[in-house]
Input
Amino acid sequence: MQGLKILQKTAELHEARWWEAEPGNKVHCYLCPRHCHIGEGQAGFCYIRANEGGKLYSLGYAHPAAMQIDPIEKKPLNHFLPGTRVFSMGTAGCNMGCFFCQNWDISKSRADQVGSSYVPPEDVVLLAIRNHCDSIAFTYNEPTIWGEYVIDICHAAKEAGLNTVMVSNGYITYDAFHDIYDHIDAANIDLKAFTEKFYGKITLTHLQPVLDALLWLKNETNVWFEITNLMIPTLNDAAEETRELCDWILQNLGPAVPLHFTAFHPDFKLQDKPRTPPETLHAARRIALQAGLRYVYEGNIYSDGAHTSCPHCNTLLVKRSWHDVQLNRLQDGHCPKCGARIPGRWANPHGKTPQKLYQHAQATARSKYSHLNL
Output
């Protein structure tokens, strides 16, 4: 397999987790609900978990295809360290087949089809510290498929006082769920629609495993998580579906889970669909608030729906413009007027990065990764 040969030139291949051998030199990958059965010299649906000699290897390990500094609000996370910077990274491949993917240039590519750099876990942390980031986000493509890399970065990040963030489609098995999410501080899960028809035809997956992952996050972890629903005209923007989605969240996850309705723009295989009108997001937000959800946001448009207000006294708490925080009135996570506690993580739970480590990061990252312009 060409991708394996290329990666062997730059670093040792990293054996994957969450797999078992099968007869005929095949392997069964049980990281995600696809349960790929992979022949020798082949890769799974995600492109980056490959069988070489009857063993499964992670081609994404230490080979990010995209790295960038973002505001945390871009993930989007509105109740997690607002106004801070996050070091965002992703690899090639994905375990969903979304027709509307906005990062299709890497998510629909094999490991040998993207330009990647060799960046071991400890160096990801150095790059994040050098760029004054409070967190590291695993994003752009589906981070579940490079879970081995995620876990090792998390170990290094905690030692440096950094937070870790998953931006995920939620398509993961229970076998792998705790292995990964027990190391994660915050997550945004894409609940792409609320019908099996949409998931089957437009993402080539299923709805129920994503709902299961949300329940595990709520009931079995301390991860702060928020939900995003990208609204695509004629496919998942019906008022009835939005109502059902909001009712499920309220009944199963509670009223305090932030929900982001975001606007679609034509991309990849859905260029025949129009952009989402702002009115669609406004209507969805009204439905969610009427259903009893307390923190409902609008994304990818300029709108008052980006702000955080106290659900008890309606005081404006955090004012945003697109991904910029313009005002933050929260006092230790509480409303300054009525004193109500606003759910979220408003201060870094891991403390600040030690000054000596910051100085080391500046020197090391500058010398090793100056070509990345980060």
User: Anything to note?
Assistant: Confidence is low (pLDDT under 50) at residues 1-10.
